[in-house]
Sequence to fold (193 residues):
Amino acid sequence: MIIKQVSLGFVCGITSTLPDTGQPEIAFAGKSNVGKSSLINALMNRKALARTSGQPGKTQTINYYHVNEEMYLVDLPGYGYAKVSESVKEKWGNMIESYLHSSQTLKAVFLLIDIRHDPSANDKTMYDWISYQGYQPVIIATKLDKIKRSQIQKQVKRIREGLDVAEKTPIIPFSAQTKQGRDEIWDLIEEFC
Ligand code: GTP
Ligand code: MG
Fold:
């Protein structure tokens, strides 16, 4: 994908009505701090259009990034963020669920898992939910630069087993630092759109 233009198209909070964008959407889900906003920046060739942070819980709204005025990359709030109250967690959960359930033009949901860690119960729930809703899940194993090359296959296998991922489901190792995996992810996005 050649990036000609990017902008923040819509921002939706707990009380907002979700927009009907009328264009293909690709959503990015995953635990807080896993690297969703960093991945979106890397895909858009931007350093900081999507706000990132070392502190988990940075993205608290659903942010729609408009790419080339033809499709949207959708940054979802992370789950599993310990520092917010149960009632706020529940509201975010409902917001994410309502988005995934109601978007008319959502083409795929990419689930991000830190390549260093085994998937959590929340990751598994999210994965099952994506599949159940009829989307073909794609797993991105993030922070690839944090492990040795010799560990990659082993970690990918652990993620595959932890989520009980079908053989045909791709797991793409990715680093926002080196941009490794970026082109492969764009190829998939273009196929889905
Ligand atoms: P929330 O918005 O809180 O849900 O987090 P997020 O999933 O959007 O994570 P974000 O992109 O803000 O990244 C969290 C932290 O991880 C930041 O400090 C990033 O710089 C760092 N990070 C993200 N991706 C990578 C990566 O590929 N490699 C390394 N080394 N650090 C990364
Ligand atoms: Mg974020």
About this structure: The chain has five helices and seven strands. The chain has one domain: 6-192. The pocket of guanosine-5'-triphosphate (ligand 1) is lined by residues 30, 32-38, 52-54, 56-59, 77-78, 142-143, 145-146, 175-177 (CB under 6 Å).
